[in-house]
């Protein structure tokens, strides 16, 4: 039985990447050691992390005046690092279009009790259970604010931002965890981008931060580990980084480049996601909770049947048929197909056959 992994993260990785890592696992570059055993100060790892940065810069068109950092703690640690480093004594705006955006805003509010800055909820779609991207009024943004924070792709709710809002000149900081390398954004449109690796880049444990140099903090942050300036000055080697995760990221970057880069990834992702969206639109059995077509995610596609009982039956039978991890997030239920870069087209086609059969049997 063929297994298709629809997990939202940690997620499917390209088979050629896993095979290369397997082949090099016991002896990397004739060193006689696994990457997992290499010192982060060794010449072998120095080449790995520099190649990883160079490949990512090439793939995303990252300008020279941006630093690329390989950090730890997941994207959630950035919820604290961002205001700690960038917002002291200033306003910071938050667009909340999903659960992770809400967590970022909540963390900022918590931090504002001890760090002097003002987190402001600029726009939210929470009242309608995040079924759309809320409109943003640039006239409400103080031009002297530190940043506007948004999430480009809402993993749980299946919405995404493709056209960036006007922000009255204030830098945009984006949590791009679930569609980095899957949608072809212009890095220069952002002040900072951050992303957990475990969806389109590699295994859990690495967090990518791409930050414009003029945004690096001048004053020391609360902790050296949480200080962008220190991390940048030490080229992500202030402490021992997640060496194997960075190595895996490098292999994924090489793989994406070999397929034609991010623009080609977006083209393939739109082809995959449109197959599923079109099937749902034609069905009178399945529905999508996303209100606007323009807001639909190419990475995470939630859907439901006419009842929770049928949802449970679908998830159980899908799992038995080899469609793993398709159950929706515990906060929303239903189903969710995460179609990241490494997810194959034939997996979508197989899912559609299963959905059609399930609909016929359960109408």
Automatic annotation (TrEMBL):
Domain Aminotransferase class V, first and last residues per copy: 3-351
Required cofactor(s): pyridoxal 5'-phosphate
Pfam families: Aminotran_5 (PF00266)
Record keyword Glycoprotein present: no
Keywords: Amino-acid biosynthesis, Aminotransferase, Cytoplasm, Pyridoxal phosphate, Serine biosynthesis, Transferase
EC number assigned by the record: 2.6.1.52
Cofactor, free-text remark: Binds 1 pyridoxal phosphate per subunit.
Residue numbers binding L-glutamate: 41
One Gene Ontology term of the molecular function aspect: O-phospho-L-serine:2-oxoglutarate aminotransferase activity
Function as written in the Swiss-Prot or TrEMBL entry: Catalyzes the reversible conversion of 3-phosphohydroxypyruvate to phosphoserine and of 3-hydroxy-2-oxo-4-phosphonooxybutanoate to phosphohydroxythreonine.
Family according to the record: Belongs to the class-V pyridoxal-phosphate-dependent aminotransferase family. SerC subfamily.
Protein name (Swiss-Prot/TrEMBL): Phosphoserine aminotransferase
Source species of the chain: Streptococcus porcorum
Organism taxonomic ancestry: Bacteria, Bacillati, Bacillota, Bacilli, Lactobacillales
Gene name of the encoded protein: serC
